[in-house]
Amino acid sequence: MPMHERIIPYLERAGLYHLARLNSRWFWLDEAMVNAFIERWRPETHIFHMPFGECTVTLQDVVFQLGLPIDGRAVSGFLAEFHERFRVLPEDVTEDTVRIYARAYIMLLLSTKLFGDKSANRVHIQWLPFMANFDDMGSYSWGSAALAWLYRCMCRVANRNITNLVGPLQLLQSWIFCWFPSLWPSGFNDFSFLLASSSLDVLAVVHPEILTAKHSRLWRVKTSLIYFSMIEWHQVDRVVAQLGGV
């Protein structure tokens, strides 16, 4: 679903514009590399066990890689196919129609980019209550919910006979490229990992509060991550060196 320029103001109000910018670019997933990391994932601690020690995806990484807020209200509320219905925004439509398409775009963005599952092109209607007010959307902790879903997806693959990994895979691969630059593929700068490649233009579009001192203190908090009925633990105390501690 293309990101029409007329829906950009609504994405900015919802605090999801940077995520949408990433979604509008080509994303190449290195499945072999991601699977190699999943093999080192320990579900009981939410940690990657590496030869040199422990590391994991933290709330700080969610902020840096996806530009999402991690403070705010918890994200907790069947499926509907409407991808074809909202594929293209017609020209010369009213602002009411633009808002409808903006809500459809955000629902598709959440259902595929952040909280994707095996339902492919279907969109959960659980997101409908969040669409009522664009300004209120920016008050939710989308970052912590996305990290909870990533943890749960990796735990499912590690614990059961499940071969297809779902979830925010762009976050996972961007985290790998950020912390393991030796794994960068040839032509890395051609891919859309803006934050992992330290591009400065993201500062103009990320949520205005996520890089403040008040917000950054949450990166070091050992706390629960909530995504509807799912609760996962942010055990950042095991990787203090990753955050510059001892």
Automatic annotation (TrEMBL):
Single Gene Ontology BP annotation: meristem maintenance
Alphabetized InterPro entries for the sequence: AminoTfrase-like_pln_mobile, MAIN-like
Domain Aminotransferase-like plant mobile: 15-78, 99-186
A Pfam family hit: PMD
Coiled-coil positions: none
PANTHER family per the UniProt record, alphabetical: PROTEIN MAIN-LIKE 2, PROTEIN MAINTENANCE OF MERISTEMS-LIKE
Protein known as: Aminotransferase-like plant mobile domain-containing protein
